[in-house]
């Protein structure tokens, strides 16, 4: 059974922009799905609706067997517990260390953080160090987040999502600000931890080449609709 099942998702913004016109996608546990499409196709809106940063106009979103289309408050927090988010801008807490940023994942998505670091057990800390090592950043653990390169910051974001025990990672243009070498490193680590931990991913990209290299399946979005859904081998260049 799918970990995420989205049916007929529509999003019309107050100004009348129809960003999603009825998108349906099932994602299987552990699947690495890449969503491609030009700027304005609706990729970001899809991810934001899926984790409730945006309210969908209509449609159904079932995550881990629960309909989360209209949940609020505590039920929404529970649903988000296993939903990791990775952003183009990294969204780390700049003045905290790399290790502390990973530990924040334990508090859950978008929690308030100040002063809460003392609560972590030795076990949590060891686990966080292990996760940093798995994204190649063990040696950087006491560095402040804002002293890392963009690619390194994004790898901290990956470690944080695993610390959060995400079962599905939604990554919105995670490599859009990175050079080709850092981009490939980030994609490679994300793909690797997805495989090792069995975490499903939906990754928004505008680069077809990375999609072909890493995706189990590719979704091509165009003007708020699915224009392509299939394996990387079947992608033609016009998608
Ligand atoms: P992508 O991520 O594929 O670049 P987006 O999901 O960001 O596409 O945008 C899809 C469409 O929705 C675009 O036309 C964009 O201008 C529009 N859009 C996005 N956010 C808003 C908003 N808050 N209000 C109005 N229109 C929006
Ligand atoms: P990205 O490159 O991440 O897609 P955008 O520049 O498209 O970023 O959008 C940045 C922010 O502005 C987002 O929060 C998006 O929802 C909002 N936005 C995008 N297009 C519009 C629009 N036409 N009207 C209002 N807000 C928009």
TrEMBL record:
SMART domains: AAA. The keyword ATP-binding applies. Residues 4-239 form the ABC transporter domain. GO terms for cellular component: membrane. Keywords: ATP-binding, Cell membrane, Membrane, Nucleotide-binding, Translocase, Transport. One of its GO terms (molecular function) is ATP hydrolysis activity. It comes from the Bacteria. CDD domains: ABC_PhnC_transporter. This is Phosphonate transport system ATP-binding protein. It comes from Alkalispirochaeta americana.
